[in-house]
Here is the input.
Amino acid sequence: MSEHPLLDQQFPEWVQADARPGYGGWLVQAAHLNDVARWLRDQAGYDYLSSVTAVDYFPEDRMEVVYHLYRSTGGSALVLKVVTGREQAQVPSLTPLYPGAEFQEREVWDLLGVRFVGHPDLRRILLWEGFAGHPLRKDWREPFFEEEVKPFKSRWPEGHVRRAEDGNPYGDNLQYPPDFDPDSWQPQGEDALYAKFQRRADEGIHTDTMIVNLGPQHPSTHGVFRMVVQLEGETIVDLKPVMGYLHRNHEKIGERNTFLQNMPFTDRLDYTTSMANNFGYALAVEKLMGIQPPERAEYLRVMMAELTRIMTHLFSIGFLLNDLGAFFTPSLYAIQERELILDIFEAVSGSRMMCNYFRFGGVVRDLPEGVLEKVKELVLERLPRKIDEMDAYLTKNEIVRGRCEGVGVLTDAQAIALSASGPVLRASGVPYDVRRADPYSIYERFDFDVAVRYHGDIYDRYLLRLDEARQSLRILQQVLRDLPEGPVMNGKPQHLVRVPAGEAYGRVESPKGELGFYVVSNGKPNPLRYHVRAPSFINLTSLATMARGEKIADVVAVLGSIDIVLGEVDR
Amino acid sequence: MNGWGIVRGMWVTFRHFADTYLEDIRRGRRRYRTAEGIEQRRRSDVRGIVTVQYPEEKLPVPEEFRYLPFLVYDEGPNGEQNLRCTACGICAKACPPQCIWIVRGSDPVTGKPITAPAEFSIDIDICMNCGFCAEYCPFDAIKMDHDYEIASVNRTQQHIFNKQRLMRPASYYASIRPTNAAREEAARSAKASKKPAAEGSTN
Here is the structure.
């Protein structure tokens, strides 16, 4: 804690240390949250609000809103907590101070029912207005509720088999809020959405703006994602993203699962980077359990994470070109490389995309025969050549430059304020990479540079991904050089792990940005709280800032340069 | 110069296109619909076309590939099918989507529960292919299959696999996962040879 200011000495009246065993950080009085946060931001350098979430301590009448703050120059997290009651749960909004909290506070309102006083646009974000209740509250139950936690007793050993779908009959598996009639319902949320658009003062000639919905079914949105844009002619005046079409309440599922059962579910967040998702979750739970994987497992983890990064960056460059109109030819060149990396994942983990490779205290198995040779061939021979090839084909291409240079600009100050992370943040001139800023696993041992670019436009985000793929190759070369022999798992594999009570936040630099898992345990086999800080979701906070003033055709490229995956955005 | 980027881009595409035919001429008939041809197109130094014409051609799957679980039985000398499963239920408890139903069998005479399943069903609609059941089974009784072609025309009736549908002989398991099967077999025989020795020492 020494690197952080002692808040209880700075604000003895308002702040006290969280002294519960297994917990850390500071409990702040709700009324003074803004003062403490302003001091932290302006005086102590905590300019980056990474994660906002809440924990429901039902049956106690207690909810805690949890904030993770960082210095954009590096270091570990400063954790703030604000306690509120469950009825009329409300805390002051931090969005005026940290604009990056906007979507996260909406998510907490939507899923946990905590009101943020002073939030500019507090609407549901992942669910729709006809949804009854706030599903992450511990006393909320779905209409097809089965049991509170897994393993479900009903499934074993008695009773006759029935299809899971029969317990969840179509048409009968939803409930509405009281006094809500779906037949006479008018979409109020839409009006609320449109009403929040910026109004322009008439400048002489009166012109109307036009509202256009891009998506949810639109090839440019990489899935089911909707952008509502307000246009003046072809120019974007304002933009509101609408998401949640792929929402499945990953976190509620996670709180019903046992700790280990969550591992394959993390694969399904950002389904292109499942190894990185496994990594973050394993780190969080290992922190709680106080265990370390053996050396060889650490190297294998880094190897898989860096292969994932190369694969995802090439993939996203390919799809950026799709969004620019070069339909599928460049992306198929990228997919060709991706296939070779997926072959490795399949041989190692058993599945190309749903890898489920990490376990608490190691990885599931060692490299099968012949895989290491394949990795060597790729890392030392093919991938460097192919990344150079990509560079040669695209970087100087006049269409790429014409469409990307100077478009969708995000300045460094904006990127930090909007809690952008990953390539979006680093392309705006902020050399912040979790692998260096707050090293985890064995990244301290490797020699690599944090890629950074300074213009903050689409072109720099593209270049940055190429730079990063090259740096990943450097790391991989060192991994291959140093890979030790030995076991890949500590202890006997167990399907039920004992996790002591407490909280932990495991974060990794996923290819999309900072991927964090906030896990709270109460000593039972299931997590009390399981929260995912999804980089794709939070990077979308800056979409409107990037898009304002651009032409409508460019918003597609801007979205492509953020590189979202809807499995992670909507969770 | 304007337009140069387009020319270069088209040239890249054209080269790949031409490479495909040059390779075809060089390799002749062996290039398609042969294991050698498929392997050659999967290599990292491949030129030209990289795709596989499914379903005429199929990619070989690696040993660790996992799809749906199956139950392993040992074949007795008189053709009996001895399931290794003891109905302990660890797989059902470890299963993340909870798709395994087990009913423990009972002795037909005494009615006492025995260590064998009377029913064993997997709802394959919700199985997420994670492989935990196979990983945590202490008896090597449930394993992940390589067969991924399981499309059926009747979703409501054919997607619960019962015990009969799930059973596969140990020889099949050894054929799809030779390394794993050999390692487990060695571990089992080592354990078996240790046991009588340990009993002998106490006697």
Chain B touches chain A through 52 residues (CB under 8 Å). The longest strand of chain B covers residues 113-123.
